[in-house]
Please model this.
Amino acid sequence: MDFEPFSYMRHAKRLEYADGIYMAGSGMYPPKPGELNFSADDYDLDALCNSYGDPRNVDWLATRYKCSGQNVVLTAGSSEANFFAFSAVLQPGDKVIIEMPGYGQFNSLTTLAGCRPVQLKRRFENGFAPDLGEFKRLLDDKTRLAVFTDLHNPSMAKLPRDLLKDMIAAAAKNGTTVLVDEVYLDHLKIGAEDDTCFGYGDNVIVTSSLTKVYGLSALRFGWALAPARIASRMCDLADVVDPEISPVCQNMAAKALGNLSRLRAITRGLHERNWPIVAEWLKTRTDIEAFTPPGGLVCWMRVKGLEETGNLATVLRNEYGVLVVAGEYFQSPGFLRVGYKSNPAEVREGLARIGRAIDDVKSHKKG
Ligand SMILES: Cc1ncc(COP(=O)(O)O)c(C=O)c1O
Model:
């Protein structure tokens, strides 16, 4: 099978273990086990666990998303949910609309399915909202799938609800499925139009997980919500790749689901505490344009005067001990994605070093 490798993931896996102030991640720290009351029973390898995942978790998600259990497919993270969604919907030769800048997994999945990616721009000057006219022009008889992230990775921009509804309706008319990866959506303040788009149409698939907002990547607990016919096809795929879903992870996830609002508030608190530190620093840098995110733990910024930031990220890592993600990994040379989840002193120190590294790289460019 031929496909374009997912270069960001390769890079991110290496960065996790590098030394330095870690400002490369987009997810929350893991909660301490005590915070979720894990108990010896949770580790029972004989635990009864339905092979499509723990029915308690399916029920919990069906209630949360106001749908039937038949619409819920439990997966190993949203990554696997996205893989199932692509595989269930696409045929070789189809076209897939993917956002730009965007999360590289979608390009890899498109090429893996033997399909062609077409890019829909999410522009800085539009607050990273896609343009409805452009979206409609990309819909043709080959366009089988359109994929969005909400919140948008890398900018964390929220997809305006009316625009999303219009795009879903236009896609439905064209026979196109819309996949919305909502793994960052719970970064929003509760009640701030933080509702899922599942239910906006019968051509909608939503994916998410306990990874980003809840810090529980290690549980590999994700889900897809899909119309029953597509969900059933995803279960066919689960039969091929997941003989069983780990009961240990399902037990722990059940505890986490029971505590989601508490965990969500902790993550939101971190954004509210640290974003002002980033905003303050940005005021001191007239050569940086940054998007103000409605939530999350990363800032997407353009460094004026640098056409590419790969070198800057390398200098930051090797000489300044700070790990960030270069815009190149999101098809955006000249940008940086900078995380701000650490303690305030470390965030301030990391930002100060980023400033010095930018000055350093620019002065070498001139010289
Ligand atoms: C948009 C998006 N979806 C999915 C993932 C992976 O999440 P999971 O751990 O749930 O597979 C990421 C990770 O960076 C992401 O940015």
Summary: The two ends are 47 Å apart (CA to CA). The CA atoms of residues 3 and 111 lie 5 Å apart.
